[in-house]
Amino acid sequence: MAARSEDLLPVEYFHLVFTLPAEIARIAYWNKRAVYGLLFRVSAKTVTTIADDPKRMGARVGMTSVLHTWGSALTHHPHVHMIVPGGGLSKDGNRWVACKPGFFLHVRVLSRLFRRLFIEGLLALHCEGDLNFFGDLAGLSEPQAFAAYLTPLRKNEWVVYAKPPFGGPEAVLAYLSRYTHRVAISNSRIVSADATTVAFRWKDYRIKNGERQKVMRLATPEFIRRFLIHVLPDGFHRIRHYGLLASATRKANIAKARALLGAEPVKNEDPPTAEIIPLTLREPCPDCGGQMRIIEIFRRGQKPQTRAPPRKAAA
């Protein structure tokens, strides 16, 4: 979060969501690395292409994308959440080009370009032999069958959703801190669990007016199966940065944008380090019966110092 706070600009931020149709999600189920990677690349290219159009904004924009693969009921529902500043650098890099207040880009335009680019990318993956098919989709390994499977999707509307702008950079940081490292289900949603059944709360978005919160009960093996659907391939990054926020040029682009916006650079101060006073535990040592003392406290993600085990007191 400290790293992301350095990237925030004093502008409106927008929240876009790019969702794969169910027919594509079935292909992604067996081809996570290839299809999820394509989802990242195509959604980013869609936004940068439309924003770069002089008829739209005519600016180079940046974005942070976060992959989620689940629905509220732990079903397979791949989609990308994208956080985008409301503007970008002009093509010559000498001006900050702001979008209209409260409006980023036309969702319908984004949706149709996203659809075209994704289908083209999926066909390229198929031609390169990077897709696998099983079960009732095994026949899609044939090029003609695969092309026929995609034909109806060229006419359907693909879901690209634009949420209202965030309430300032601080709200963006709060969102990222809550959602970027979220997993398919949190402990707070689990109502009960035993060897046979798991019950958890979920939200039924099909209900327009009424109570959406419901409780779902699944056989424990089915709950485990649904949870494991959302385990990503080894080394796959589910948070990525594009455009002005791409890692290679991010610092220079952010500095230039801040200068053009007249914003002061962010100064991160190291938090004061408090001396940890050794504490004692109520329970005696199970080995020698002596008093147990806390010798180190470390936060999540930190590595404890290498210490030799304490020597036993002489009898």
UniProtKB/TrEMBL annotation:
UniProt cross-references to InterPro entries, sorted A to Z:
Transposase_32
Q: Which residues form the Transposase IS801/IS1294 domain?
A: 62-249
An example GO biological process term is: DNA transposition
> What are the protein's GO molecular function terms?
DNA binding; transposase activity
Name of the protein described by the UniProt record: Putative transposase
